Amino acid sequence: MKTILFEVDDRHGSFERTISIDALVIAGWTGRDTVAMEKHIRELEELGVKRPTYTPVFYRVAVERLEPTPKIQVTGSQSSGEVEFVLLKDDGETFIGIASDHTDREVETYGITVSKQMCGKPCSRKLWRLSEVAAHWDELVLRSYATIDGERVLYQEGKVTAMRAPQDLLDEFARRDGQLVDGTAMLCGTLAALGGIRPAERFEIELEDPVLRRSLTHSYAVETLPVVG
């Protein structure tokens, strides 16, 4: 079990809430738009990642990987981030956050589950109540920026409509014998990278709510550790 002190931002203000997490799920291949999902599948196939046998897929990762940290350490130079919205259940209520499914792309070519476990999953400390955004869910926008060779570039951008809506995704999870019970966090899929998947020394993620005029944001530096054997 992992305990994180979050900040819940709702219509009445913000307050701190300590949430215990004992299960971390990474949902993959969650595209609502089959054309966009196929683009991402081909993107990964170019890196040697095998096509999934069914979609979506729900990978299990150690809860220690989820952390609102400003820096992660990775082995070698073949990893990269992905902005994703997060579903988090606590005391019967579902919250929304954001995280980066930072993944080792070299390991991903021979073991997707292992590649997910290899890297930290930096997340925002701030959360929203799902109930406050459910009515205008399709208006939310995900984006990320990557700093590559010292240049900050737009890396991903698009509406959450690219992925399955929360309840649809949870229904699929239930069909695979999963439940979003208290203490479960789920990363819910990502967008295709603009210009292709590539490593960066810094990664910034954002979930924008243009209706309520607010955003969830987080950024982190990537320290590359040498491979010596």
Automatic annotation (TrEMBL):
SUPFAM superfamilies: FAH. InterPro entries: DUF2848 (IPR021269), Fumarylacetoacetase_C_sf (IPR036663). GO terms for molecular function: catalytic activity. Pfam families: DUF2848. This is DUF2848 domain-containing protein. It comes from Paraburkholderia domus.
